[in-house]
Amino acid sequence: MKLNRLLENNDMGCVFTGPGDPAEIEITSIETDNRRCIAGSLFVCIKGYVTDGHRYAAAAVASGAAAVLAQSREALAEYGFDWEHSKAAVIFCPDTRWALSGVSATFYGDPSQKLRLVGVTGTKGKTSTTYMLRAIYQAAGLETGLVGTICNKIGEEEIPSERTTPEANILQELLFRMLERKIGTCIMEVSSQGLHLERVGHCHFGTAVFTNLSTDHIGENEHANMEEYAEAKSKLFTMCENALINRDSAYAGKMLEKAERSGAKIYTFGIDSECDFHAKNIITKQNGVEYDVAVGRREYRIVVPVPGRFSVYNSLAAFATSYLEGISPEQAAAGLRKVFVPGKAENVPTGRDFSVLIDYAHNPDSFINILTTVKEYAKRTVFLFGCGGDRNRPRELMGETAGKYADFTIITSDNPRSEDPESIVRDIEKGIIPTGADYICIVDRRSAIEYALKNARPGDVIVLAGKGHETEQILKDRTVPFDEREIVREILNTMK
After folding, report:
1. DSSP 99-134
2. N or C: which end of the chain has fewer CB within 10 A?
3. Quick one: 414 and 282 in the same domain?
4. Positive or negative, the Cα torsion across 417, 419, 425, 429?
5. Is the pLDDT of residue 374 over 80?
């Protein structure tokens, strides 16, 4: 595609400085990583939290980039890039993140205008809701794309996911590939960072869903406070046709206000509030939940093989979304009966008189969700968790929450990254000590799991929290294989 075509979108405020004629410069790819640049690439300089893409402009040109899109002359000059004498074309714009989403959408033919894009945002429930939606579409005989935390999918093709919502150029390429495969709908987790950093800036959503909002992603390099966090989430409801809002959330009003101002059609769901899609007659079991939902004059019985009140919200959101997208309630109910979400209250068969669940819970609210669910049927809840390093998590509060809600807690390591694992454990311990709860610290996570299994009592439910679907552990100097399902099986085999 010629460079001038990419710059036609006036909302980006791009200014071409040369050299060459933009009508003659052929662009072969859009890149933010200079190591991916090839002959003809457009390299977009993104200023991140860790490094600044302007630093790598010269390296991108050396790799063949035909053009560089930068935020300012000063930003390039800071890293010694002589833009006035560059052999590559140079373009300046006020916001390279916004421009990246714009040029990427144009380069790939605005795929979100051609397929149906369904976006799910919220602190908790994004992954579960998207997987439930995918199960519904499968029950309806429809192939989908999936973009999210666990992985990205084009039909059944699985693509590793580096972040919940990919950078704009990666996202637009994924959507383009879905169109090539004749896929009609993409179901996407939309993170607050994805919204705040304009990764979905030039996307058009058919239906946008709000699950909930709770304390998470607050701190350095994330959001300054809950108000800023909510504001980021609410952006999704300015770029959709249908807005589906959890009426029970304290932040529903914020989302409804944004949706109303944007002209979206508004629908609500919930348990405790009057809403368009209301769950009632709820039954919670060890192996799942059941409830009724009314659509028009008819009621449908929904059965979901994932335990917990939160599963009612997630499945209700999926049911309502599929209804708004034209799927019958019968097909939705059939899909929800078969849903499986990796790492979400996932049962690991033990063949013993105790149970093991793997769950992605990694903040105080999600701790409460899984622990209150398990307490309904467990004789004793054994809760094993750690905190990720280089993350702004409320470690003491997580320790306090575990102490209040679990019968026995094993504090261990998660993904320590560059931090000292023992130091992280001590931070957590400061929160659990005042609760007077029964606990032990075992820094090595495999040893901690082994302790939990070898000391299990009849009727115990052991919850391995924090890693969920992950199959690796990130240490200071290396990343090692760490699939908790396999580890549990290996340890149990030694106990025969």
Report:
1. HHHHHHHHHTT-GGGTSEEEEEESSSSHHHHHHHHH
2. C
3. no
4. negative
5. yes
- Let me know whether 89 and 120 are in one domain: no
Looking at the structure, tell me whether residues 230 and 320 fall in a common domain. Answer: yes
267: enclosing H helix or E strand: strand 265-270
**Domain C-terminal end among 70, 103, 136:** 103
Neighbour-count burial of 380, counting CB atoms closer than 10 A to its CB (0-12 exposed, 13-18 middle, 19+ buried): middle
Name the CA radius of gyration of the chain, rounded.
24
Q: How many domains does the chain have?
A: 3
What's the CATH code of the domain at 72? 3.40.1390.10
Please spell the DSSP secondary structure of 360-376, one letter per residue: ---SHHHHHHHHHHHHT
- Contact (Cβ atoms closer than 8 angstroms) between residue 402 and residue 432: yes
Closest CA to 439 of 402, 416, 399, 409: 409
Query: Which tokens is 234 given?
Result: 């609410």
| Whether 217 contacts 334, CB under 8 Å | no
DSSP bridge partners of 288? 285
- Could you tell me if 158 and 176 are in contact, meaning their C-beta atoms sit under 8 angstroms apart? no
- Which band of pLDDT confidence, cut at 50, 70 and 90, is reported for residue 162? confident
CATH number of the CATH domain containing 430: 3.90.190.20
Which domain covers residue 76, as residue numbers? 3-103
Q: If residue 336 lies in a helix (H) or strand (E), which one and from where to where?
A: helix 329-337
Which single residue is written with the structure tokens 């499968």?
138
Residue showing tokens 């190591």: 35
In angstroms, the CA 494 to CA 260 distance is: 59
**466, 431 Cβ separation under 8 angstroms:** no
Q: Average of pLDDT values for 307-327?
A: 97
**How do residues 470-479 score in pLDDT, each as one tens digit?**
999 999 999 9
Between CA 314 and CA 127 the distance in angstroms is: 9
For residues 46 and 128, state if they share a domain. no
Inter-residue contact 40 to 67 (CB < 8 Å): no
